[in-house]
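HUMAN: Can I see a protein plus its fold?

ASSISTANT:
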Amino acid sequence: MQIYVVQEGDTIDSIAKDTGVPVSTIIFNNQLVYPYRLAIGQALLITYQNGEERQVIMTSGYAYPFINQNVLRQALPYLTALNIFSYGFTASGDLIRPAIDDSFLIRLAMDYGVRPVLTLTPIDASGTFNNNLISAMIYNPQAEANLIEQLVQELQTRGLQGVDIDFEYIKAEDRVQFAEFVTKVRTAINAIGFPVSVALAPKTSDDQRGLLYAGKDYALLGAAADFVLLMTYEWGYTYSEPMAVAPIDKVRRVVDYALTRIPAGKINLGIPNYGYDWALPYVKGQTRATSIGNLEAVQIAIDYGAVIQYDTVAETPWFRYTKDGVEHEVWFEDVRSFQAKFGLIQEYRLMGAGFWQLMRPFLPGWLLMSGTFWIE
């Protein structure tokens, strides 16, 4: 495979001639939109036959039950597991299914030979993570046992093939009890033949402060679960100043720390499948970025004549454009930034990759991954 960066004056025809790859292949693999205009600085995936030895990895991705089926079908051939987001629970340990029926997700995943996984979260009726709900359940043996029993029943009766525990904002004083809960879930789910994973906020030290970090003990949770997902994204987020969602230098620091507490063979690297668009000037506490897809970002650059830049420290593309007199700054992911993250997986021999999330199409990313790794 080759990544081609569009230069001034390039067209699809000229790129096809220079690379020896058919126009139709370039259009299809990069999901280009008629009349196939290009942005200067846009990265295109050029695919050839590849017979090189590749690392075997596990791949997973999160999806809500309202995902477009065509978008999901694009991603499924490149996945090991589909994490269905999300199941909740009450303080008494009663399992709550997603508000929208997820049966088609389970069936479709199985049709593609992909494991459908129950993602468990403490999201309350308001749609936010509730750490009081976590505390109420893990310190109540009856509620905890009830929830675990219902998890087992849900997997056995509906075809789900694993549990992913995504608890956020865990209180610092609950970190040991939470790890013990993960151990109990793993024991019960392993007994029926399926794995348990846990999502970890992106820490860089044991004593890192903050509501996202203090309750996640990497050593305890790495031992408690079959494997973990490092949520290495959201440095750039809805309320942040404009910056990369997953700058590779910051991602590397998290991986370096994680490897001091968890074996490489149990670590999946989190990769974002989206970007953000900020209106400028940025005002802390007021500016709210809009989440956009990677293909959508490129289309914005095309529509407004923006030149796509590439930050070599963050290993992430970005650009600015002006709409209705307001300047905007966009950071997103492309095949170059995916390649940088895949490089970390190869360098550290990690277990695999986990994508947040699959709701937006990005076929060139999946093709790049399949050309880089063998999917387990």
In short: The chain has a mean pLDDT of 97. Residues 55-274+334-375 form a domain with the TIM Barrel fold (CATH 3.20.20.80). The chain has two domains: 1-49, 55-274+334-375.
